[in-house]
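Morning!

As promised:
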Amino acid sequence: MNKEQTNTDNEHIRLRFPPSPTGKIHIGNIRTALFNWLWARKKGGELVLRIEDTDQERSNREFEDIIIQELEWLGLDVDEGPNQGGEHGPYRQSERLDIYKKYRDKLLDNDKAYKCYCTPEELEEMRDKARKKGEMPRYDGRCRNLSSSEQQAKEEAGKEPVIRFKTPVSDKEIVVKDQIRGDVSFDSSVLDDFVIYKSDGMPTYNFAVVIDDALMDITDVIRGEDHLSNTPKQILLYKALDFEIPRFAHLPLILDENKAKLKKRSGEDTVYVGEFRKKGYLPEALFNFLALLGWSPPEEEEILNREEIIQGFSLEDVNKSAAVFDIEKLNWMNGKYIRDADLDQIVELSLPYLREAGYIEDENVSSRQLEKLKKIIEVGRTGVDYLAQIPEETELFFTGLEFEDRQKAQEEFQGSEVELVFKTLIEKLESLETLNPAAVNSIFNEMREELPVGARTIYHPVRLALTGEESGPEMGNIIYILGIEEVKQRLENALQLAD
Ligand code: GLU
């Protein structure tokens, strides 16, 4: 008798994240990992990392390392896996081949599976025929009832068989009880005798996944909607092997802004987790953003920390409809996290970008230099979406002054009004006890009241003289970072330019 899992509040749940290490880890995969992690942590259950590396040609240990690195970066710790070990190992499918063979043989012995010797040409012919008749292409079952002498003849002719599952005709309708989508019913006549073992001696995904999920005591399978169509096949295998069927939850697809499936855009790698890490997105921000890709918190808030997300998360609140990956929203959210984070953390994370831009040359940064860098980054972080933008945002503090249009600048600095503003500013700065952005802003307010010149003449020529630009960070911040000596120097140079 097959039992199906039912939901009870205090039941111990076991979840899994089983990526195939065939490429860099994609936003869609990490969202699946996150939702599994959230449900495991919310329910006090366990999360298993299983590496599905049976595709010998495409699987690669380097990709496995990347997957593990990105999970760690996002703080998605697992309870069992290739590095953690555990009682249900091994956790790489390539190390479980004997286990799959045992179950394959069990199905063969029980006449629930059979060897198929059809060649690719024969299969193509079958598909062709079905297409011409307007039917779904399916395997016609011609190897189902080969006699042992027929099998022997094929084998002697050197044909390597695949193993096909004898899809039972008794199951007319297969119902996937999905925790997100409700009951999804499949007509079993669309299923053919699908392959469970390839001719290279490797199990197929559908076969290995069922055995692993069953032997690893997985209670809930949470994965992308693209796997929903595999689920009826897996249910048939659970039944044939007399395994308990787990609960399923299929997460909505992630679409791009044009409502197309999220994929690599030409010249950009924006779908890989590593690209976000390299560009200086904060893991806390990406975590928050990903959690909202398919899940809507009951209160509809947007900025939620890890603990709040765990507490609020529920599979019931996962949407059925596709989620849209809105990079503008991620940028907004990341910018907010950058501004709200501890400054020392942001400084630490920004230094590599400044080094790469050539703005920091020394191996070790002196504490004086660090103080200055802190001020610069404090200003720079107010204007960025991600930390790789810090060098560009703070360029004016590192490179010499350059006027885009020297002649225009010269004109801008002409006249007694500008001279009055510059001289007053220098005097007022020199009489300050401590230089800080607020004090500088007060000076500008005073000048607006005291000097007989318009507001534009107070701000614009000063900004141009100090930065070479027409716009940029707040004046208080610029002057605070440049320091009085440098400010004096730049203002005097500007006046000389006007002469
Ligand atoms: N290795 C499969 C994948 O990465 C796992 C699918 C599943 O969760 O069953 O798509």
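The mean pLDDT is 93.

Hope this helps with the figure draft.
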